[in-house]
Recover the amino acids of this structure.
């Protein structure tokens, strides 16, 4: 049975706001500097892997364990692919990639919560 943990939800949302703000800032800076969506997405994803592992793993899930890092990388790889597909899909509209990224952030955050909760930071079974 799936249980709802308000504390976890609050910590994840608070961390998500911080991570999203920092991620959008990194995306915008890199996109403006290089003019490439691909470079911006790769940059923000690599930065996010390290920055977000500490904020999400340490604060939101309270499970900052090195053994969780490989699964975290896989989770962020899937988020990266979803992000790239979203950018490609919405690029037909006459809006900037930064605007598209702002609109992609909420659904990507919801998907990342599910992936992180059930694939990365699930409770360890006791022996």
């Amino acid at each position: 049975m799936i249980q709802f943990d308000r504390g976890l939800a609050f910590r994840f949302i608070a961390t998500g706001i911080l991570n999203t703000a920092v991620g959008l800032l990194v995306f915008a800076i890199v996109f403006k500097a290089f003019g490439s969506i691909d470079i911006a997405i790769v940059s923000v994803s690599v930065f996010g892997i390290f920055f977000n592992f500490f904020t999400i793993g340490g604060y939101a899930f309270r499970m900052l364990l090195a053994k969780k890092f490989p699964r975290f990388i896989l989770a962020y790889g899937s988020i990266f692919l979803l992000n790239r597909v979203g950018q490609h899909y919405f690029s037909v509209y006459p809006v900037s990639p930064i605007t598209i990224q702002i609109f992609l952030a909420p659904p990507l955050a919801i998907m990342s919560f599910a992936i992180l909760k059930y694939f990365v930071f699930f409770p360890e079974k006791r022996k």
Notes: The mean pLDDT is 87. The longest helix spans residues 6-34. The CA atoms of residues 20 and 106 lie 9 Å apart. Residues 6-120 form one domain.
